Amino acid sequence: MATTLLKDVTLFVFAAFAYVLMVQASDPDILSDFITPENMTVIDGNFFTFTGFRGILDAEMPTSYKGTQASLKEFPALNGQSVSMAVLHFPPSAINPPHTRPHSTGLLLLVEGSLKVGFVDTSNKLYTQTLQAGDIFIFPKSLVHYQYNASPTEPAIAIAAFGSASSGSVSVPSTVFTSGIDDLILARSFNTDLATIQKIKAGLVSMA
What we know:
Layout: H1 4-23, E1 66-70, E2 84-90, E3 95-100, E4 106-112, E5 114-120, E6 126-132, E7 136-139, E8 144-148, E9 156-162, E10 170-171, H2 172-177, H3 183-189, H4 194-207
């Protein structure tokens, strides 16, 4: 259960983080206060409200990693605002596999549990940390990164903020092994044999 204190400060803290990300965001600047859908005739407070996170910190933990997003797709009011968020649930031993966010820097606030996190920079140096509840970690834009709940018994919950309304996500395992790249090319690239590549592919298919 997330602590009451962390629940109380989450919105305030991430409002500040979202502002910082927005100032340095990669989304194009807009020349109006906000952007509304063309077919929308009545604009009120409901348009600027996202309710998809209600009760999410106390929701039943899923059986595998799950990210619930408030991005442009789910929350049209974000169009042109250069910010979005997500709530990440990690049951015991769950992992958010290595991936990139091509459009945005990411900030992660750990609300409950512990997570092992890391990213690799363009010089191939790995930066890692073990986070505890209340810690914040930054993932620089476009760099490969991951999060892992190493506890075999305790879940973890984190909140992520992004400097883009559509930060995008490119999974390294699925992009490399399930996008149709020829097995021979992969085998030679990883200095292994075809059987190993096919075994990896089969494992990814079974996890889908």
